[in-house]
Structure formats: structure tokens, C-alpha cells
């Protein structure tokens, strides 16, 4: 693993490179985006950037402009420009006066860590996390190119990552910039992590980060990570992710002529599996349809592929029953689900060996935390961080919806795995949910309001004295 350091005091009159010259800097222009020339060029760009937007103050115009600049960096898989993103964010951090450290747990996959040290180092810190990468976009399906960050007459900024999750990255930074300008002084240290590979599972990103000594040294007491847009005026907040599993069932059976009726063919065995799964799926989906549970509070189970038949260059052989058949399911579980009950159900009902079936259960990521508990952050008085967070949202004039389980999966699970309370929160109200979708956008006013929300949230959390 390689590291790069850069420390700049907030009101330093020394040049960026002058200060860096005093430090044990290990820079590599080949392996990281933190090359001196890249930072220098970006710094010049940053200092010369000034955006005038009608209806906004010069500061707000600059904030929108910096958001657009970050959105224009092509961070989509399969070849995310991590070097460009880290370079841009590092320049922002330096201009704010944050300490920067670039870690690299896997070659070519930098993780940027920024710090603002609190006045009481005996207290645990807060961590604000976001991911550097984005999912791909199909330009032909977009009304504006996905990396143009085009801002239309209504203030909608179109870009891949506008909601997921480059908005929070810049909002965190701009909130800290404003707090610094107000001469705010945090009691607890505030750390920001910008991690690679969240969109492809986080194995080379946050999973390695939370297991590292660097993470341990931060003494993190509470984490904010990404959430999702809200269609209403209420903010959404997520206290858990569902567990992402995959199930592959393979059925075997005697092959035979297509015309012959007999018991125990591979296809018949596989159909038994499909029928059992369909009954269970209905029982879960009925709870959602009846309004008894939210979609993220049930086990979802969807077939994603089937493979069977005897194929030739002209298609499938139609008069032969095959000896093997396979089906794959995407399986998502609420975090507190009894996992042994489900495993038993798979073994006894869905894929019993007595019917010539075998199965493979792929459990991606952790199921329980280091104490063996579900990966759930309490959202009641038992969690003092929750109370502070909730009050800060109210103080900024916002309202919170009932806390939810996220249907999909984020890097928050790795922090929860360490037993650290972690909330998923992206301040986007009255906004269509467009993550991973075509024409993803965020309105400029929504983006700017989010900065104010974070100012309240970050100042409250970092001033909070009594939690450990
Ligand atoms: Zn995301």
C-alpha cells in the first residue's frame, strides 16, 4: 500500500508546495492522481474559476460550479478516472485547509482521506463517506451528455453521479468550507473518505479501508454515508442495507426422449424448485402489496437467468429432455432476518438433494457485525448520535421521514460491520429517484440547500460532547 501526505494549516501564507516541501511526501506521478503538476494545474483552475449564476450569490455560484466540475470527471466503470477525481478533491481540500492523505489498498485505486482535527482528541471522530466511482451511462439515452453536467433553465444539472453520489462529496466539502469561514472549531475530529469501487462491491475500497490500521487510528464514533432522493419534502434516512445474496440451483435427472412422460427429469426437478420459490416470493410480495411492510423489509427473490436444453448451431434440440438445468436468483434479505431458517428452507424446500438438486449460496459481504449482531444502526434514544442528527435536521428546517432499510447495498455495511453507528443520508427532497437511471440530475437549489443541512449536521455532531 502507498500513502501520500499533504498538510496545510488553514490560514497558512506559505505556498502549497512550500508546505509540502517540509513533509515526508511520497509522491508518484505514475501511480496516483496526486501528482504535483496535476495538483498545481487544478489549483490554478480552481483559483481562476468564478461562476456568476443569476439568482445566486457569488459564493453559491462557485459552489454550483465546483459541483459541475466534479461531475465532469469521468468516473464511470469500467475505467473510472480515479486519479482525476482524487486530484480535483485534493485541490478543494487544500483550498479549505484540510489535511489530506491518499491511501492505495489496491494498485490504481486510490482512497482519499481528509481530516479536520478537533480540539479534544480523547473523543471519537465523525466520518463522512462517499464513493468516487459511478455506474456507466448510455449517452444515446440521455437528453444531455452524461458527463457534461449541463444545467438547464430550471436549474437541473444533468450528469451521471449527480445523485449517486458526487452531490454529497461536494456538499460535505462546501459545508466544511463555510464552517471554516465562520471560524467554527470542532470538538471532535471530522474525517472525509472518498473511496473507490463502491459500485462494484467495495472489496478493493471500503472493505479494505475499514480493516486497516489507518481506519482504526481515526477512532470513528459515527458515520454518515450516502442515502437516496426523496419524492416528498421530507428527507429519507437509512439505518440498514439489505444483505445481497445470490442463489444458484442446479437440477440433474435422467435424460430421455422428448415424447416420453417419466418422473425425475432435470427440468421437472428444476420446475419444482421454481414453484416452491414462486410461492415464497408471493407470500413476501403480498405483504408489500397489502401495505403491511415496505419493499425493503421483506425477502426479495427474483430469477435472473435459466440455463437448460441441448443446443446445436441451429437452436435447441426439441425432442430431447436434458440431463441438467440451472436457475440463478437475486436474493436480498432484511438485515435482522434469521439466516439459518432461510438456509434450511433452501435445503429442504427449494433445492432438496432428495430431488437431485444442488445449490450454491453466494453471500456477498458481511451478514453480522463483529459482535455477531445484525448490521443495523438504532434510530431511537438508545443511540445518542441519532438524537443529535435528528435535532440538527430539525434545526435546519428539515423534516425526516420514518427511518428505512435501503433496498440495495452500499459501503455503509462495512462500517456497521465494525459496530460503528452509520446512517445513509443524502439531502435531496422533492427529487425523482434517478440513481443508476438515464438522465440523472439534481437541481441546483436542492444541492445548495444540502450544504446548509450538512453545516448544521456536521457542526452538531462534531460539537457533541457526551457520547464516547
Ligand atoms: Zn452510491
TrEMBL record:
Q: Which UniProt keywords apply?
A: Hydrolase, Metal-binding, Zinc
Task: Give Gene Ontology CC terms.
Answer: cytoplasm
* A GO term, aspect molecular function: metal ion binding
Matching PROSITE patterns = ARGE_DAPE_CPG2_2
- Residues of the Peptidase M20 dimerisation domain: 249-349
* InterPro entries attached to this UniProt entry: Aminoacylase-1_M20A, ArgE/DapE_CS, Bact_exopeptidase_dim_dom, N-acyl_aa_amidohydrolase, Peptidase_M20, Peptidase_M20_dimer
* Residues binding Zn(2+) 1, per UniProt: 131, 164, 226
**Entry's cofactor comment:** Binds 2 Zn(2+) ions per subunit.
The protein's required cofactors: Zn(2+)
What's the top EC group for this one? hydrolase
Q: What name does this protein carry?
A: N-acyl-aliphatic-L-amino acid amidohydrolase
Amino acid at each position: 500500500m502507498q500513502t501520500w501526505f499533504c498538510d496545510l494549516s488553514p490560514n497558512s501564507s506559505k505556498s502549497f508546495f512550500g508546505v509540502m516541501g517540509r513533509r515526508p511526501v511520497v509522491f508518484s506521478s505514475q501511480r496516483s492522481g496526486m501528482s504535483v503538476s496535476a495538483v498545481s494545474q487544478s489549483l490554478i483552475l480552481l483559483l481562476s474559476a468564478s461562476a456568476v449564476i443569476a439568482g445566486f450569490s457569488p459564493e453559491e455560484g462557485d459552489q454550483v460550479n465546483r459541483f459541475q466540475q466534479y461531475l465532469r470527471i469521468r468516473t464511470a466503470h469500467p475505467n473510472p478516472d480515479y486519479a482525476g477525481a482524487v486530484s480535483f478533491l485534493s485541490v478543494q481540500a487544500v483550498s479549505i485547509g484540510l489535511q489530506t492523505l491518499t491511501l492505495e489498498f489496491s494498485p490504481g485505486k486510490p482512497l482519499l482521506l481528509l481530516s479536520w482535527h478537533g480540539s479534544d482528541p480523547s473523543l471519537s471522530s465523525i466520518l463522512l463517506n462517499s464513493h468516487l466511482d459511478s455506474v456507466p451511462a448510455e449517452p444515446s439515452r440521455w437528453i444531455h451528455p452524461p458527463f457534461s453536467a449541463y444545467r438547464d433553465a430550471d436549474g437541473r444539472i444533468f450528469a451521471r453521479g449527480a445523485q449517486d453520489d458526487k452531490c454529497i462529496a461536494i456538499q460535505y466539502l462546501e459545508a466544511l468550507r463555510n464552517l471554516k469561514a465562520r471560524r467554527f472549531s470542532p470538538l471532535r475530529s471530522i474525517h472525509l473518505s472518498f473511496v473507490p469501487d463502491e459500485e462494484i462491491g467495495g472489496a478493493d475500497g471500503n472493505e479494505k479501508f475499514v480493516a486497516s490500521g489507518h481506519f482504526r487510528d481515526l477512532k470513528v464514533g459515527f458515520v454518515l454515508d450516502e442515502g437516496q432522493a426523496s419524492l416528498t419534502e421530507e428527507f429519507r434516512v437509512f439505518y440498514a442495507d439489505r444483505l445481497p445474496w445470490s442463489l444458484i440451483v442446479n437440477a440433474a435427472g435422467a435424460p430421455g426422449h422428448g415424447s416420453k412422460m417419466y418422473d425425475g427429469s432435470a427440468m421437472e426437478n428444476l420446475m419444482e424448485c421454481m414453484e416452491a420459490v414462486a410461492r415464497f416470493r408471493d407470500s413476501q410480495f403480498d405483504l408489500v402489496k397489502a401495505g403491511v411492510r415496505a419493499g425493503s423489509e421483506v425477502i426479495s427473490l427474483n430469477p435472473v437467468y435459466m440455463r437448460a436444453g441441448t443446443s446445436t448451431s441451429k437452436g435447441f434440440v426439441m425432442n430431447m429432455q436434458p440431463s441438467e438445468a440451472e436457475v440463478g436468483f437475486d436474493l436480498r434479505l432484511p438485515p435482522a432476518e434469521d439466516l439459518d431458517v432461510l438456509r434450511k428452507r433452501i435445503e429442504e424446500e427449494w433445492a432438496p438433494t432428495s430431488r437431485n438438486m444442488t445449490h450454491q449460496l453466494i453471500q456477498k459481504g458481511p451478514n453480522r457485525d463483529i459482535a455477531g449482531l445484525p448490521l443495523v444502526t438504532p434510530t431511537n434514544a438508545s443511540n445518542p448520535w441519532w438524537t443529535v442528527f435528528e435535532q440538527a435536521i430539525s434545526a435546519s428546517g428539515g423534516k425526516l421521514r420514518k427511518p428505512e432499510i435501503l433496498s440495495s447495498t452500499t459501503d455503509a455495511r462495512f462500517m456497521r460491520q465494525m459496530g460503528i453507528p452509520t446512517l445513509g443520508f443524502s439531502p435531496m427532497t422533492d427529487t425523482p429517484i434517478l440513481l443508476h437511471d438515464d438522465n440523472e440530475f439534481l437541481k441546483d437549489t436542492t444541492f445548495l440547500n444540502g450544504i446548509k443541512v450538512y453545516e448544521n449536521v456536521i457542526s452538531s455532531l462534531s460539537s457533541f460532547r457526551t457520547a464516547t
